[in-house]
Amino acid sequence: MTGHGDILLFIEQRGGAVHPASRQLFAPAEHLARQWGRRVAACVVGAGAVGAAEQAARFGAEDILTVEHPCLEVYSPLLYSRAVCAAVEAARPAVLLLAATAMGRDLAPRVAVRLDAALVTDCFELSASGDRLRCRRSLYGGRLVATCEVPPGRLRIASVRPGVYAEPQTGSAAAPSVRRVQFMRQASDLRQRSRAVPRSSQGVRELEDADVVCAGGWALGSAKNFGILYELAEVLDAAVGASRAAVDAGYQPRSRQVGLTGKRVSPRLYMAFGIDGSMQHLAGMSGSKVIVAVNSRREAPIFQVATYGCVADLFTLVPLLTREFKATLKQS
Known about the structure:
Layout: E1 7-11, E2 13-14, E3 17-18, H1 20-24, H2 26-36, E4 40-45, H3 49-59, E5 63-67, H4 77-91, E6 95-99, H5 102-115, E7 118-123, E8 125-129, E9 132-139, E10 144-150, E11 156-160, E12 177-180, E13 212-216, H6 227-236, E14 239-242, H7 244-248, E15 269-273, H8 279-285, E16 290-295, E17 308-311, H9 314-331
Parallel strand pairs: 1-4, 1-6, 4-5, 5-12, 6-11, 7-11, 13-14, 13-15, 15-16, 16-17
Antiparallel strand pairs: 2-3, 8-9, 9-10
Helix pairs in contact: 4-5, 6-9
């Protein structure tokens, strides 16, 4: 059974599959648990909780709480915040960690208000400073870095940026304890209804879910021209990303921005087309395993961090890559 003072992770899942950003939470959680002599616990909410709980056990959760109910099949802020609060009250952890995904950003402050907890959002680094939780986050578009130290005494909640920590390679060898938390919805929760889960546009993945990212910069010239990256991404089952300059120009929505002021990603393959490589953009994708850069400017800074670089016109090369990948994958 979960003990007082443990590190509790909210595990975001879809259809029983743990969200990659939630898997990444185990890295800072295990660090804090070692420093404080505590354990790592996990909270899984919604339909498919059992399957997600099994995955959480493999990633290192020593104790797992599940909250299941038919009304939790689709994310609802009111219902999910009540469910997470029920799990927290059952576990009584010292710290609750969530991924700063769209769901996590919405859920964390709601839970904090309900439980009168301390909250630090969008952290890129967590550590222990004695018995205090030390959180680092960027401010003013990445121009400043704030360090917050939150003392014990009440629940501490932190949301962690996706992509800043690597997923765990191995989990706990011991079988975790699993218990189901009773959940009772209230009539006031029914005033808010969710009927559909938004899907990624144009058949490509979201940045947080993808093992491959095809990112474009200001050099693409228009939102319409980003279509060639969407075609490539669809063939590779990849996500489409964009530099801050491309987003500021209106070529892509803010949700696809990669960088210190956007999303941090660490895919197996990051392909950058027409991106020069500002410091803030490099900070958002430097954790990628393999980086391929295509730019017509030989002196572009991104070539200094790229695994493979190609000085070429992206409007010529991208359609060729799409055609070759399509032919190769069709044969396999």
